[in-house]
Design brief:
With about 280 residues, this protein is α+β, with helices and mostly antiparallel strands. The chain is built from eight helices and 14 strands. Strands 2, 3, 4, 5, 9, 10, 11 and 12 form an eight-stranded mixed β-sheet that branches. It comes from Streptosporangium fragile.
Length: about 280
C-alpha cells in the first residue's frame, strides 16, 4: 500500500485537520541545496544525517538547507547572476522572498557543509574555507550573531547566484507540527573547495551516488524523507554534474496530502509514487 501511515496522535491530528477542527501550522520559507561533484562512473551528492535529537527529520539523510533568516532578505550585498526578480519568476515568489531563498541557500550550504558559493568578484569563487577564521564566521552565522550580509560585506564577497540552478519545490504535509515551504537548488562543488564534517545538526556526512543512496534506503541502511528520495531518483538519471546543471526544469510544487485509506490515515503524494524505502 502506498503512502506513510500516521499512527496514534498523529493520525488523530490528521483527522482533525481534514474535518476542519484544527488549523495546519503555516509553512516557513526554506532552501535546500544539492551539492554535486564528479565521481567514478556517475555524479555524487553530499548528504548529511540529522542527529536523532532533532525535532524535524531526526536520523534522516538530507541535503544541506534550512529556514530563511529574516535578515537574508537584506539588499545590501554584492550579487552576481540571476536577479531576485528572476528567481521569483522561477519559484513563483515575490522578489523579497526570492532574495531570501537564494541567500538562505548559500548561507545554509556554508553552515552545514563548509562550501561557499561566493567569490571576491562576479567571476571568481573562494578556493578554501577551512581556516580558523572561516570556522569562526561559520559558527557565528549558525548562532545568528552574524548576519549573512555582514559576513559577505566584511570579507568583500559577491554572492554567486549564477552557481545555483533551480530543481524542485516541496511543502511539508499539513499534519506536521513543523512545516517548511522549501525550494530545492542544485550546485557543483566549486574548484578547490571541499566539504567537511562540520557537526551542528548532523552527526554523519557522506558523498554518494544517487543510485547507491536509493539502494541503501531500499535495504533499510539509511532513512530518506520523500523529497530527498524523489530528488535522488531524478538525479540518478544523470552521469555528469554538467548534465544536471544544464537541465531545464519546470518547477512543480509537491505537497504530500493526508488521506484516509482503508480506514487508516496516511500521507500520500500521488498515484504513481510509493514511499516504500523512502
Amino acid at each position: 500500500m502506498g503512502g506513510i501511515p500516521l499512527p496514534g496522535a498523529l493520525g488523530e491530528r490528521a483527522r482533525d485537520i481534514l474535518a476542519g477542527r484544527v488549523e495546519p501550522v503555516p509553512a516557513r520559507d526554506a532552501a535546500t541545496v544539492v551539492i554535486l561533484r564528479e565521481g567514478s562512473g556517475a555524479a555524487e551528492v553530499y548528504l548529511l544525517r540529522r542527529k536523532s535529537s532533532m525535532a524535524f527529520a531526526a536520523g534522516a539523510y538530507v541535503f544541506p538547507g534550512g529556514s530563511v533568516d529574516p535578515r537574508d532578505t537584506d539588499q545590501a550585498i554584492a550579487w552576481s547572476g540571476p536577479s531576485p526578480a528572476a528567481w521569483g519568476e522561477i519559484f513563483r515568489a515575490d522578489e523579497k522572498t526570492a532574495r531570501g531563498l537564494v541567500c538562505a541557500a548559500v548561507r545554509e550550504t556554508f553552515e552545514e557543509s563548509g562550501v561557499l558559493l561566493a567569490g571576491l568578484s562576479a567571476e571568481s569563487v573562494v578556493a578554501d574555507t577551512t581556516g580558523e577564521d572561516w570556522e569562526a564566521d561559520r559558527l557565528a552565522l549558525i548562532d545568528r550573531t552574524l548576519s549573512f550580509a555582514e559576513f559577505l560585506g566584511r570579507r568583500g564577497l559577491v554572492l554567486r547566484a549564477d552557481l545555483l540552478r533551480p530543481w524542485a519545490h516541496w511543502i511539508t504535509p499539513e499534519v506536521e507540527s513543523r512545516r517548511f515551504d522549501t525550494r530545492f537548488f542544485v550546485a557543483a562543488l566549486p574548484p578547490g573547495q571541499r566539504t567537511r564534517d562540520v557537526g551542528g545538526e548532523a552527526d554523519q556526512v557522506v558523498w554518494v551516488r544517487p543510485a547507491d543512496a536509493l539502494a541503501r534506503a531500499a535495504e533499510g541502511q539509511i532513512f530518506l524523507m520523500p523529497p530527498t528520495h524523489r530528488t535522488l531518483g531524478e538525479l540518478a538519471a544523470y552521469e555528469k554534474v554538467t548534465d544536471v546543471l544544464a537541465t531545464e526544469r519546470e518547477i512543480v510544487t509537491f505537497m504530500p496530502k493526508i488521506a484516509e485509506v482503508d480506514g487508516e490515515m496516511r500521507i500520500v503524494l500521488d498515484d504513481d509514487y510509493r514511499f516504500g524505502g523512502a
